[in-house]
Amino acid sequence: MILASASPLPLILTVLAALAYILPAALLSRISVRSAHLWVAVAWVLQGGLLAIGLLSEPPHFGFAPALSVTAWLVAAVYAIESLIYPQLPTRWTLSTIGAVAVLLAYLFPGTVMPPSTSVWLPVHLAFGVACYGLFGMAVVHAWFMNLAEKRIRLGEDTHSGLPLLTLERLTYRFVGAGFVLLSATLAVGMLFGEAVYGHAWRWDHKTVFSVLSWVTFAVLLVGRAAFGWRGKRAAGVLYMGSAFLLLAYVGSRFVMEIVLGRMA
Fold first, then answer.
1. Is cis: bond before 59, omega within 30 of 0?
2. What is the pTM assigned to this prediction?
3. Which residues are paired to 123 by β-bridges?
4. Residue 254 to residues 77, 215, 240, 261, Cα–Cα distance (Å)
5. Nearest-5° angle of CA 253, CA 135, CA 236?
């Protein structure tokens, strides 16, 4: 449900950000890499402004679509930094498309009013949560390109990855490791300070169950790689499974509450 707004600014920024994201994807072979990066940078700034409007408005709003938008925004930020080190990374089309979709969804479904909180642990919990979404999002993007490169190598084709396969793999699981640390911190804050974060003590609801399942899945992945040398499709499959659990934990539960059931959690 779109929230009525007296100001047309959010709609204007949404349209401009979506266009700035989609332009380098639509004109992939007709504009330079530098121009594409400039357009994505403009889109990233506009998207950041939109997120600030939603979170700093009175009252602030948040939900499944803003969570996806924050994730896309963080992924774009990490990619921008990473591309300075590895300019061969081929994810421009993918991330531009994801960014445009995320911006539009966040405008169409701005979420529900966030409950008032006097505790510092609520923003800490949210910050850890969205940050780990971003890191696992980057891990999934890299794993997808890693699997694509492996397939093309087996077929004797050009990988088009621009990076050695082992470098892609190393980057993928560095993101997994960092995301696992933040996910652990997110769960710890929720468990130890549940009353301040949620307004009630820790309980085993759908969000908690999927969060713990994702944590266990990522733990199994990291142990499997360290102890048994898991690589390739097996490791990527476990990564995708854990990421799906994590997506269902907050985004999935909020989608059901906001859209399917049409009520606040």
1. yes
2. 0.77
3. none
4. 25, 19, 20, 10
5. 85
Q: How far is CA 36 from CA 22, 24, 210, in A?
A: 10, 5, 37
Longest dimension (CA), the chain: 59
Catalogue the E-assigned strands of 100-184. 112-113
For residues 128-165, b (16+ Cβ closer than 10 Å) or e, as one string? Answer: bbbbbbbbbbbbbbbbbbbbebbeeeeeeeebebebeb
Q: In whole angstroms, what is the distance from residue 24 CA to residue 174 CA?
A: 28
Per DSSP, which regions of 77-230 are E strands? 112-113
Q: Token match 């009525």: residue?
A: 4
Give me the count of residues in the chain.
265
d(CA 32, CA 28): 8
Contact 125, 190 (CB under 8 A): yes
The structure tokens listed for 188 are 């710890």
pLDDT-based confidence at residue 92 (cuts at 50, 70, 90): low
Q: What are 196's two structure tokens? A: 């301040």
pLDDT band for position 256 (50/70/90)? confident
Hey, CA dihedral for 101, 103, 107, 112, is it positive or negative? Answer: positive
66 Cβ neighbours under 8 A, 6+ residues apart: 51, 54, 55, 106, 110, 111
